[in-house]
Write a structure and sequence with these properties.
alpha+beta, Glutamine Phosphoribosylpyrophosphate, subunit 1, domain 1
């Protein structure tokens, strides 16, 4: 077995291990695998009656826009949803399996898994993706839902090792999370109404798109808007594009007015 000095250790990169061991030229794998599509910015926050989740629609492959209409915020079941950032392929597969598992549990047990149990199940799935994460295909989701037992909205953040962390107010993930999270932190209040919460997450994605090239803003020309959904006592509800068009027009007016002054 080859022995490497710390500064020359290839780590978990198998192609680099072969190259460092002299079994293949250093440039044998260069350009052989194109960048995989990655989802970018997603946010979630609690408001007075539940939670709101939002995500932009852009997926990138390296410096290229690979998809303009990706749905990064999806319904897990009636009272919960998942937002994804990271490698798009593994993330989509993970969500589909998660949906099936929740449905299977409900059919077998005759009742839904608790919201905390759903968060734990997703944590195990993220941990199971660790080998892929070590190769650059990590998945970092947000899980949120309405806890029917406590009658309150709850949300969780995750890391690539499967660690889950319940957040009391808001959470952001993805390449534009710094900018989106800052906007939410500044504008957040515990008594936000549903409409105010939708406005705040929309403004956070607007600012993230303005500062982060991997985050897509509203595309009025193509009629493409971020995915925004609320989850409350009535369950999962998508915010329609017509409403979002008005929200982003209000944001545009505010930004334009601010620039003029």
């Amino acid at each position: 077995m080859p022995v490497f000095q710390p500064q020359n250790d290839p780590g978990a990169n198998f192609p680099l291990l072969l190259a460092r061991a002299g079994l293949v030229p250093d440039d044998s794998f260069e350009g052989s695998v194109p960048p995989s599509p990655h989802a970018t910015t997603c946010v979630a926050l609690r408001y007075d009656n539940g939670v709101v989740m939002a995500g932009d629609r852009r997926a990138t492959s390296g410096n290229l826009i690979s998809h303009r209409t990706m749905e990064k915020v999806v319904e897990a079941d009636r009272y919960s949803g998942v937002a994804i950032a990271g490698a798009a392929g593994p993330a989509i597969e993970m969500i589909r399996l998660f949906q099936v598992q929740l449905e299977y549990y409900e059919k077998v047990q005759g009742r839904s898994l608790s919201l905390e149990g759903k968060a734990n199940q997703l944590s195990a799935m993220v941990r199971g993706n660790l080998p892929a994460a070590m190769q650059g295909m990590g998945v970092v989701p947000i899980f949120a839902g309405y806890d029917t037992a406590r009658e309150v909205g709850r949300l969780w953040a995750y890391d690539m090792l499967g660690g889950r962390y319940e957040e009391r107010e808001h959470v952001a993930t993805g390449s534009g999370s710094l900018h989106a999270g800052t906007v939410i932190k500044v504008g957040y209040r515990a008594d936000l109404s549903r409409d105010d919460a939708v406005m705040l997450v929309s403004r956070s994605l607007w600012e993230a798109a303005d500062a982060d090239s991997a985050t897509g803003g509203p595309d009025v020309l193509r009629g493409i808007y971020p995915i925004v959904a609320t989850i409350d006592a009535d369950g999962w509800n998508l915010v329609g594009d017509a409403e979002l068009a008005g929200v982003f027009e209000s944001i545009r007016s505010l930004v334009t007015r601010g620039s003029a002054t």
